[in-house]
Amino acid sequence: MGLTDTDTEGGYAGRARRSIRAFFDFEEYDTDVWTEVLAGLTTFLTMSYIVVVNPAVLAQAISIQGYSQGAVVSMLTVVTLISAAVATLVMALYANRPFAQAPGLGLNAFFAFTVVITLGVSWQTALAAVVVEGVIFMALTAVGARKYIIQAFPEPVKFAVGSGIGAFLALIGLQAMEIVVPDPEGTYITLGQVASNPIAILSIVGLFFTLALYARGVRGSILLGILGTAGLGYVVEVAGLVAPGTLTVGFTPPVYDITPLAGAFVSGFGDVEPFGFALIVFTFFFVDFFDTAGTLTGVGQAAGFLDDDGDLPEIEKPLMADAVGTTVGGMLGTSTVTTYIESATGVEEGGRTGLTALVVALLFLVSLVFVPLAAAIPQYASHIALVVIAVVMLQNITAVQWDDITHAVPAGLTILIMPFTFNIGYGIAAGIISYPLVKVAVGEWRDVRATQVVLAGLFVLYFVVQTGGIMQAAV
């Protein structure tokens, strides 16, 4: 007796679902396909701004003879999508973690404005430094060195990273929503003109709509908030209530030929001054290393992945995915690829496995057909998710032993320095440097491990190089 078409389709579908559940180990993480897909879509929408921002930043430093700046931006958009897709695909299929990757915001600014524009290094040589950094990362990860270093982080720093990232996310989100703005009077930041700014008004409406959905336990509340806010922005603009382009994002025709960028790093090795080049690699290395470590630890804490010692089990796998992403990105023509803190939005939606990351990777690939489709979501709408997640991640602050001064000082500095310097790695550095100092001050120097002292010393050296003018003098 043969199978009917319905039976065959049902059988294929059933086997496919069972294969997916087994491959991504759904049983261990108590999840399902729909939850993972929704989480991936949420993460993608939240970090989609990088598809617009990364090309805009890098195009300030990269010029290609015979091509207009618009064409270069379009090429960089394609490269951004491909590198993000490849790196996140490795994270999904090799590491089985719900972490998404893309060229890092901040790292691209260092690449463009510091290395190329300020120091006068060619963009090809800067790409060569990124590739070298990625290869070093792969080697260190393969022998377990990166895992060993991260596990050497002081316990209060590990448990404070999540809250520090939460504060950092809040600042990023509130700035994109134009609720927090620069203050020309000298207090650095202040409240924007929220009652007269259409973006701020719509952002506030969207934020409280999202928070209300989240508080009621509505599944997909963050995604609904993003889409609802973006949709309302288009409606308001079409209705003529604001000027065109105020609340919506335009479309740029794509240029898919990336041959002027791909492989350009090779020529960069022909114009290298060894000491200056080593300092650039060193800086890329330090910033990316500890930014990634902080992100994996903080988002891992939000997902409930950390063990009793505050370590992420099998951390070497996501670290390797990050290293591969950096290497591939540099070869294609973009700055350092890193793990994104926006992954926390997908984790909050219930994403627990690599299927979440796989959805993000596939969406990056699909966006290649409609470059830049991802940019259709205005930044103010996508960044609402960051503020919501920031509130959730602040609850991790209770894991710190605040009644112990040797925990309170490094944890407090870790949390405070991240948003105030706009850098996850700097917050970790502050915590690591202060930990042995405060331990020695109270007579508990025996609690300090040799690796923690070495890490503190390396961070001090890094800041001397980075802020003491040594790099500028060497290049």
UniProtKB/TrEMBL annotation:
<keyword id="KW-1003">Cell membrane</keyword>
<dbReference type="GO" id="GO:0005886">
    <property type="term" value="C:plasma membrane"/>
</dbReference>
<feature type="transmembrane region" description="Helical">
    <location>
        <begin position="197"/>
        <end position="215"/>
    </location>
</feature>
<feature type="transmembrane region" description="Helical">
    <location>
        <begin position="37"/>
        <end position="59"/>
    </location>
</feature>
<dbReference type="InterPro" id="IPR026033">
    <property type="entry name" value="Azg-like_bact_archaea"/>
</dbReference>
<feature type="transmembrane region" description="Helical">
    <location>
        <begin position="411"/>
        <end position="433"/>
    </location>
</feature>
<keyword id="KW-1133">Transmembrane helix</keyword>
<keyword id="KW-0812">Transmembrane</keyword>
<keyword id="KW-0472">Membrane</keyword>
<feature type="transmembrane region" description="Helical">
    <location>
        <begin position="380"/>
        <end position="399"/>
    </location>
</feature>
<dbReference type="InterPro" id="IPR045018">
    <property type="entry name" value="Azg-like"/>
</dbReference>
<feature type="transmembrane region" description="Helical">
    <location>
        <begin position="453"/>
        <end position="474"/>
    </location>
</feature>
<keyword id="KW-0813">Transport</keyword>
<feature type="transmembrane region" description="Helical">
    <location>
        <begin position="222"/>
        <end position="243"/>
    </location>
</feature>
<dbReference type="InterPro" id="IPR006043">
    <property type="entry name" value="NCS2"/>
</dbReference>
<feature type="transmembrane region" description="Helical">
    <location>
        <begin position="71"/>
        <end position="95"/>
    </location>
</feature>
<feature type="transmembrane region" description="Helical">
    <location>
        <begin position="157"/>
        <end position="177"/>
    </location>
</feature>
<feature type="transmembrane region" description="Helical">
    <location>
        <begin position="355"/>
        <end position="374"/>
    </location>
</feature>
<dbReference type="GO" id="GO:1904823">
    <property type="term" value="P:purine nucleobase transmembrane transport"/>
</dbReference>
<dbReference type="Pfam" id="PF00860">
    <property type="entry name" value="Xan_ur_permease"/>
</dbReference>
<comment type="similarity">
    <text>Belongs to the nucleobase:cation symporter-2 (NCS2) (TC 2.A.40) family. Azg-like subfamily.</text>
</comment>
<protein>
    <submittedName>
        <fullName>NCS2 family permease</fullName>
    </submittedName>
</protein>
<feature type="transmembrane region" description="Helical">
    <location>
        <begin position="115"/>
        <end position="145"/>
    </location>
</feature>
